[in-house]
Amino acid sequence: MRSLPYKTKQFFVLLIKIGIVVSAIYFVYHRITSNDGLDVYVFLEYLRKNDVFTLQNVCFLILLSFFNCHFEILKWKYLVSSVTHISLKNAAEQSLAALTASLFTPNRIGDYGAKAIYFQKSLRKKVMFLNLMGNMMQMTTTLVFGSIGFLFFALHFSLELEAVKISISMVAFVLILIVVFFVLKKSQFKIKGISLNNIRTFVRAISLQIKVKVFLYSTIR
Asked: d(Cα 180, Cα 185) in Å, to the nearest integer?
């Protein structure tokens, strides 16, 4: 079976992109209008009465959103540079498309597929692992700063926390991580035919400079 012509492939890619955008718009609209616990008009009236939509607040939120997207784009550009070169424009297109696709897919799984379709078939598995690596770094920084924020909140406000249950849960979580780590290390566990040894080799091949930059961008975000 012959492969599809280049123009035909580009047409299908364009249809997929349009479908992702339309699906995301419909998903957001449906979630807002079908939420029984949220009256949109009451919510907007509350914002208006409390002067939430002041020029200063709007400009500040737009600025934060811009920097958030900008550092996510830079993070993705440097991650992909370990396997191929892409421009800042391409990185922006891929990141925004992935963000849109992740809105209406379970567990943001669309984030991986949306980025992978921009690359050749031979690079798609590597791109998906790079995306996973970037998301794990982002989650790590989120957990670290979230824990610091929670500790600060708990020290300054009276919270009814059961220290014993929290301690037991944390110890159990750490033990589970240790067991999973040793089981995976000893077993021949594979993901889509790729062993963990191959994944570790691939991750180690990424330069330390790229890893540091990606972690730095994740921290800034």
From this structure: 8
Between 2 and 6, residue with greater pLDDT: 6
- pTM here is 0.70
Q: How many CB atoms lie within 10 A of CB 162?
A: 9
166/212 Cα distance (integer angstroms): 32
Picking from 156, 137, 159, the residue whose alpha carbon sits closest to that of residue 148 is 156
CA 44 – CA 54 distance, rounded (Å): 13
Phi-psi region at 108: left, alpha or beta (left = phi > 0; alpha = psi -120 to 50): left
CA atoms within 13 A on the CB side of 44: 4
**Strand spans (E) along 42-86:** none
Report DSSP letters for 129-198, one per residue. Answer: HHHHHHHHHHHHHHHHHHHHHHHHHHHHS-----HHHHHHHHHHHHHHHHHHHHHHHHS--EETTEEHHH
* Phi, psi of 195, rounded to the nearest 5 degrees: -75, 160
What SS3 state is found at 39?
coil
The letter for the amino acid at 88 is L
pLDDT per position as a tens digit, 75-97: 999 999 888 899 999 999 888 88
Q: Residue 76 corresponds to which amino acid?
A: W
What is the number of other CB atoms lying within 10 angstroms of the CB of residue 198? 14
Distance separating alpha carbons of residues 210 and 112, to the nearest angstrom: 20
